[in-house]
Amino acid sequence: MNAMILGSLATSLCTAAGALPALLFSNISHRGRDSLLAFTAGIMVAASTYGLIPSSLKLSNLWVLTIGILLGTMTLTLMELLIPHTDPAHDIKRSDSTQTGSWMFLSAMALHNLPEGLSVGVSYGSPNQELGTIVALSIGLQNIPEGFLTALYLVTHGMRRRYAFLLAALTGGLEFLSCWAGLKFTASFAGIVPYGLAFAAGAMLFVVYKELIPESHGDGNERASTFSFIFGLLSMIAMTHLLG
């Protein structure tokens, strides 16, 4: 139990630790903002395709993956329809679109953390004593850049830095809670985790294609954004590869 407490707490705190450097950013140029958005998109695509999707397939099959991704995509689509939304007009002053995009991005990251927390909890509840530590370490290291990118995205969209840090840290708190739920109901949640991982992948991919890529293009910074996307993608792939 002590190992589970330390592991789940460390995993959640990694999100807050990663968000701390975002407090140093204040004024970011339009070109820098577009590049950061594209870099974030690359990170999220790699996290989905090289982390969440393979993990879901290892625990289930193609049908489960398909259902989970479609559910994640449909959920974000419904959120977009229910929240007043203006599509990006490539104008740095678009406040309504910016606020909606920020909340959708934050929602996607929060949804993405829930199945990760469940995975940690279920791993600690499994007969394999070493599995929990391995999963917690892998997810915790991944949470560091995710916490940074979440806070930075909110800052670049006009949110106060302290508020952005707090919200990014809270997404890690949700992961801690879902970790405890996964441990307590290991038998019940073991079959749900693959759906949750695929659901998170679908939600993240929706945000990337619907929000991040359109917002990072169309202002004359397409080439810089494209390279930033590639660098973000490669960075996350390298981290996934190094973690084995």
| Overall form | globular
The end-to-end span amounts to: 26 Å
| Percentage of residues in DSSP E strands | under 5%
Number of helices: 9
The biggest sheet amounts to:
none
Mean pLDDT across the residues is 79
Which regions are unreliable across 5 or more consecutive residues at pLDDT < 50? 84-95
N-to-C order of helices and strands? HHHHHHHHH
* Quaternary structure of the protein: single chain
Structural class: mainly alpha
| Rg from alpha-carbon coordinates | 17 Å
Strands, count? 0
Q: Percent helix among the residues?
A: over 70%
Describe this structure in words.
It is a multi-pass membrane protein. This is ZIP family zinc transporter. It is found in: Cell membrane. Keywords: Cell membrane, Membrane, Transmembrane, Transmembrane helix, Zinc. Its main location: membrane. The chain is an all-alpha fold and 244 residues long. 82% of the residues lie in helices and 0% in strands. The chain is built from nine helices and no strands. The chain has helices at residues 2-19, 30-59, 62-82, 95-125, 131-156, 161-184, 186-189, 193-216, 222-243. Helix 1 packs antiparallel against helix 6 (161-184), helix 2 packs antiparallel against helix 8 (193-216) and helix 5 (131-156) runs antiparallel to helix 6. Mean pLDDT is 79; it is low at 84-95.
